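User: QacE family quaternary ammonium compound efflux SMR transporter, Photobacterium chitinilyticum:
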Amino acid sequence: MFNVGFLWLALSICSEITGTSYIKKTNNFRNPAMSALVIGAYSLCYFALTKAMGYIPVGIAYSLWCGFGIIGVTIFSMILYKQKPDFPAMIAMGLIISGGVIMNVFSQM
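Assistant: Predicted structure for QacE family quaternary ammonium compound efflux SMR transporter:
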């Protein structure tokens, strides 16, 4: 059955990835446009995360939020800042993904 909480969670994850990815571009909050983007993204992120947790158990929501956030920020940092994850980072992200899958498929939370 469809759970609207996952839409709120997706919005939260996307806005968290945006906010985190653009922090560096705020130039220590001296760039007003990027600063406004980051503050707006984080505000939307936590609003949407709060809504998501009204439908999804906290442990599930937070584990997915963290896991997808880490992977999303890594992908954006590759694009925006030309940062390349090394082999241990790739293994760690694989573990994060597998942990999220295991928690969602097998957990009774």
